Amino acid sequence: MIRRFLSDRGGNYALMTVITMVPLMGALALAIDYTELIRQRQDTLNALDAAGIATAQQIVSGATDDAAKAYAKDFFEANLGHVQPANTALTVTLPKDNTGGGTLVLQAALTYKPYFVPVAAILLGKSSGNTNVNFTARSEIRLKNSLEVALVLDNSGSMTELGHGSSQVRFDLLKSAAKQLVDQLAGQAQLMKQVNKPVQFSLVPFAASVNVGPTNANAPWMDTTGVSPLDHENLDWSTLTSSVLPNQYAVQSGSYYYAKGSAWDATQLNQVLTRFSIYKSMKRISSCTKNSSNVCTSNIVYAPIATWGGCVESRPYPYNIQDTAASTTTPATMFVPMFAPDETDNVDSNSRPANNNWHLDVTTSSNNATRQKYMPKYFTPGTKVTPAYGSNTGPNTSCSTTAITPLTDVSVAAGQTAVKAAIDAMVDVGATNVPEGMAWGWRALSSTAPFTEGRSESEKGNDKVLIVLTDGANTYYTPTSVTAQSYSGTNYLQGGNDLAGSKAIYSSLGYLTYPGQTKPFGSTYTYGRPFLGTSSSVTKTDYSNANYTKAMNEHFATLCTNAKDAGMIVMTIALDLDATKTTEAAQMAALKTCSSDSRFRKDSAGNPLKLFWNSTGATLSDDFKEIGNELSNLRIVS
């Protein structure tokens, strides 16, 4: 049949053949061109992705901008397969020029010139016109951003316990895992030669407080002029009168007290009195010649009782959970040195001493709140001052941690060594104040004071990462629920008394009430800082450890939101927390809620995984490796 059709020369058959062949040939042409178009499009996409990955590797290895762009073009064109390079155009946007930051963007335009479509158009009696087909493709590759990491690590006393599933204590496990992370990311930093300080680490040890370092005593963000409403908490300068100490007294003028009398040294005379004034002036008699009654009569040598250990008060709400810059125009934003007041010498009916009785009261008043805030005692040298000279003792009580290590470049050996040495130097003692630790971690990453080593928040391609680890719930204790300082008296193991009515042991949060005062001098606060800004579920007259934890948890939740809104990536780790215990289960839930979403890892439903690790002592090292991997990704963005 077909042979007869092909060999027939009849006019009708010829005409029918011509008519039939036109659409057949047009369809065939379209099919061939469509298939080729699909192939060239896929070749272009493959070449684009391959060029992106290869160029990203060149960039992190230190290629210049021009070299990276030239490499991308050459690699792209060499992998086009059946596509003619002349029919393509490649646009390269380097990470530093990318508004999103941290990604290399390659965009290709392909002009496909059909083989048969123009002929088919003519056969169909249509104008051929411009039958070229244009399309664009985009490939986005996320590079290893520059990193700024704050390790906010729990240094509380519970870190001395054995890690679950391990024969080592939690603190040793933590130190090992943290140093492992530093090494891992320092190795990545070696590949980022085109970036200045590609990976920086800050260390923020926390317990009941955070130590900003005593070298910052005169920093502009420290309250050296007594403007903060916290400066006068627990201190009543009006008791330091000329009738009590004629040569060293205080005179009020407006909202300040000034140093008067010949016993003040030249640097303090006529200056505003602050907590720093007490640290500078407190003296003890270290040696002397005594008479037969054992009283110093001559050759008296004085020595300081204590110098400021470097810990600061938690700022009043809302500044305690913000990175608001310190300014004397907003006094509550200034940072105030911690000064644990000497508590009463008296014991309660159970013979329990005060938690922090480190100086003679030097007053006959029977009112224990008065004895606690009586200022002349700090300016009356004696030989009976208790051993209050070191960290976490005397006026530095609850200042137990080592100082913050500001952001340090670990791409150089000296920086890597310094950060790891700071991790090794951490000590484990004290309560747990996660909000205070995390707030200072944020401030360590910030580009503004107190610590200014961080890159600008607007800089592209930089990640600011808060890694927060704790092994317990937020804690803040009533005086009778903890062991009193061992030098306070013979019955210190029974817990401390609260004859002055402070309702809490002293820490960076101060007390819960103001003994003997409706509110501190110059303050508008009617109750203690832990309760400021909390909801009605926190009863302001409930002076219990559980209620204190509830208040701290509320501050923590708001802090997490604030930090993430400011662009911080938050990674949280619950170490050896027990989900069967109410307070620890609540802390685990709070840590998970606080964490950011992963940008790379997803669950089976395609949802981003939370950057939260429920770790044990046995898994901590592997979990830190996973954290390092999360921060070291290089991949095509889908």
From TrEMBL:
Name of the protein described by the UniProt record: VWFA domain-containing protein
Gene3D superfamilies xrefs: von Willebrand factor, type A domain
Biased composition (Polar residues): 347-366
VWFA domain mapped to chain residues: 148-211
Annotated TM spans: 12-32
Keyword RNA-binding: no
Lineage start: Bacteria, Pseudomonadati, Pseudomonadota, Alphaproteobacteria, Hyphomicrobiales
Keywords from the named record: Membrane, Transmembrane, Transmembrane helix
Stored InterPro entries: Tad_N, VWF_A, vWFA_dom_sf
Entry-linked PROSITE patterns: VWFA
